[in-house]
Amino acid sequence: MSGKRTLGLVVGVALVACGSETPGSETPSESSPTTAQAPAAESSSASTEGPRDGGAPEVARILLEPSEPIGGDEISLRFDLQDPDGDPVETQIDWYVNRQLYSEDGGTTLGTDELLENSEIYVVIRASDGQHDVLRQSGTIFLRNAPPVITAIEISPQKPTGTQTLVAETRVSDREGNDPKVEFQWILNGAPIPGEHGSTLQPGKTKRGDRVSVSAAAIDAARGPELTSDEVEIGNSPPEIKSKPSTALAGPTLYRYEIQAEDPDGDRPLRYDLVDGPDGMSVDLVSGLVEWEIPSDASGTIPIEVAVRDPYGGEERQAYVLELNWQDVSDKDEKSDSASDSSASDSDSKSDSESDSVSESESDEAASPGNLDEEAPDTDE
């Protein structure tokens, strides 16, 4: 094998000096640095000339396809071969990667699954008719970056409503192990939603009955192909109770609470219902007004649950409790009234006592000699 390679190198130098035949326009120029690395071509053998020595085999139009392969592609070799004498010609195809022999006598195809991005690839063809050996080299092609690929995409949740955030979930494959960026496009009823290129679609963009899908492409040095998810249909959104239960009385024994509700889909009419509550409590079907005339013997904890429904079966419930302590309040009132009466009585007694004291003092002062009027002396004496 070493003698054969030495012979090829010597002949190759002679061919370059003599301007020997090179591949056509399908290959790079003669100045390609890879040309110097390939084994040189032998234009003729050293055998004695015979009557059938009409010339060496001719190898022309060497093509590697695709001309711009990406990682994972299979590269194919095509070339024209003929012998002037019609002699049978044997060929050997050697593939070179990064100027190093990669596959000796590897045939007309080369897989690139194990090659790296930007690898330099060319072939050397050895042709022999038994009397002449020739070498021809292809042009060099470069293995481009394999774009990342979205292998799966779906929307979660799969049965959403208009009040839920939609999330696009993807699986990405990148041959080079890069971390590609993923770009999304949300689609509503078959039309792209302007500006929606993130992995989520926020509530408020859809309503009941809308059809939503999302497409995605992964991007690193190259942009991968787009993949579109299956459509999901936006389901009915239940109404929402916005009010808080009342804990105040509308009268001495009357409880009222007006339920206030909204429907995200704008559905009308909404209907109200009492799911759980004490005897005598009612809810107006249309207005949502809760009323209860509280009986005198009612006390303790009273569980209550109300509901609102839309025409499409959407429902929301609200549960709460009332704490009734009317007896305790009554006892406090009686104690308060008793204290008030006692205070008033004490005040009256104190006032009467002070009044009596004042009267007695005034009486004593009137009876005092000093307070009595003295008679005038008889001046005639």
Structure description:
By secondary structure, the protein is α+β, with helices and mostly antiparallel strands. It folds into three domains: about 1-45 and about 55-140, Immunoglobulin-like, CATH 2.60.40; about 150-235, Immunoglobulin-like (Sandwich); about 240-330, Sandwich (Immunoglobulin-like). The protein has two helices and 24 strands. It has helices at about 1-20, 325-365; strands at about 60-65, 75-80, 90-95, 100-105, 110, 120-130, 135, 140, 150-155, 165-175, 180-190, 190, 200, 210-220, 225-230, 230-235, 240, 255-260, 260, 270-275, 280-285, 290-295, 300-310, 315-325. The strands form seven sheets. Strands 3, 4, 6, 7 and 8 form a five-stranded antiparallel sheet that branches. Strands 11, 12, 14, 15 and 16 form a five-stranded antiparallel sheet that branches. Strand 11 (about 180-190) and strand 12 form a beta hairpin. It is rod-shaped.
Per-chain topology:
Layout: H1 2-18, E1 58-65, E2 74-82, E3 90-97, E4 100-103, E5 109-111, E6 120-128, E7 133-137, E8 141-142, E9 149-156, E10 166-173, E11 181-188, E12 191-192, E13 200-201, E14 211-219, E15 227-228, E16 232-233, E17 240-241, E18 254-258, E19 261-262, E20 271-276, E21 282-283, E22 289-293, E23 300-309, E24 315-324, H2 326-367
Antiparallel strand pairs: 1-2, 2-5, 3-4, 3-6, 6-7, 6-8, 9-10, 10-13, 11-12, 11-14, 14-15, 14-16, 17-19, 18-22, 20-23, 21-22, 23-24
